[in-house]
Amino acid sequence: MNRDWIATAETLSRALPFLQRYAGATVVIKLGGHAMGSDAAMQSFARDVVLMRQVGVNPVIVHGGGPMINAMLDRLGIQSDFVHGKRVTDAATVEVVEMVLSGLVNKRIVQAIGRQGGRAVGLSGKDAGLITCTQTDVDLGFVGTPTKVDPAILRGLFDLNTIPVIAPLGAGEDGETFNINGDTAAGAIAGALKADRLLLLTDVSGVMTPDKELVAELTAPQITAMIADGTIAGGMIPKTETALHALREGVRGVVILDGRVTNAVLLELFTEQGPGTLIRPQTRPE
Question: How far apart are CA 166 and CA 64, in angstroms?
Fold first, then answer.
């Protein structure tokens, strides 16, 4: 008998406890970085998500799209101003952001899932009152911070065996459109759903020690201490702060993992040791 078949059967057998563990669970995935870059990476990610849905997991995808937005702004000749290193999202820019995120990027993901045999529906946070925002900073323009998330539409899609794919946009109290950081939007949605896992796909392995070794598991107090002493710095700070917020809202665990790893999501959920950093509350949930 072919040894590859035997190895595949053994892998599936070892995965059984994890398949049982996550049956019926809600897993919110922030898709960004390399996992969105190439068609091959997108198809691999879509296949993994369809498999998750097939074995009873309820995946929710929240995506970014910064490089695509930058390319479209350049193409249209729209100049950007920056405050403290952050882009000012003026009225012209937010129109481009919505066009790219809700149109180009969102539908590319939906179509990739469809080509793998899954069912997906593209949304933005503006649809069905999903995300209500306030302005984060007047100097940054139409950048929003979620104040209310109504996940009813997402639960309805779960019942229809359909995968929600969400562009990180929200509506203000007066109907204005706000651009939301993708990690922030994913954390807010995960908190509203009391998700079992929030997976933040990025282009680094996870939280690293000063000696550049991956930390496999951390608690919320340890994260707070590592931010205070400078071990966690730069772009990892907002990701870990999103993780802490999600845990406070009832998410059971947050994983920061490398989207460049093939099948990263499946390895994280269905094997003994995933490829990223798992962040838990101080005490393990039952």
Answer: 9
